[in-house]
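Input record (one chain):
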Amino acid sequence: MLVAIKGGKDGLRLHLNEAAGWPDVLGALRNQLDQGAHFFNGARVIIDIGNRSLTEEQLAELMMLMREHHLEALALASTSRESRSAARAAGVVARPVTRSVTAPESPDGALFVWRTVRSGQIVRHHGHITVVGDVNAGAEVVAGGSVVVWGRLRGTVHAGALGDRTVIICAIELRPMQLRIADLIARAPDGGAAGHPEVAYVDGDQIAVESWERYRRSNRSDL
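The corresponding structure, as predicted from the sequence alone:
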């Protein structure tokens, strides 16, 4: 894998393959950022290049790509002194690679948010997100995987933000400002049954919403 995305205590971490050719890595990163434009927009990331030695020109290419996609590079992590020196010369925070910064996650890489997400707040994670609380109007949840809200969903949720159309959005009360799954956008229909869990999923080329019970019974015996 040329590019891997993981979460950590200090935010998102982009792992760039240290052995592959730089043009291939940079191209794969550009494709990943293009595909997940909404997921990455405004994100703060640590770029982990392992033992790769970057020239000043290569680092400049990388930083330009970050700016084009509105990412903030918190730091460049590398075991290479040359790369760390180039980063400092360019005004980028440099740090040695440490593998202990990854935040605890469930086995499937899910993030659990044990609070209400309030207006103006953004929750962003590369895997699944479960919110035990409400997502208020003006709040935003952006996930690479599925999103489950154990409460009222009144804000904006983007599931499958890295391009996965197989994910779902589920909430006890689904009344969002906007729903997005991968590249598709929708609003929840008016007049649903308040207080009854509903699921949004991709059906063909559009987002469909139905009750959890109906969704579970529709040839989905694994649920």
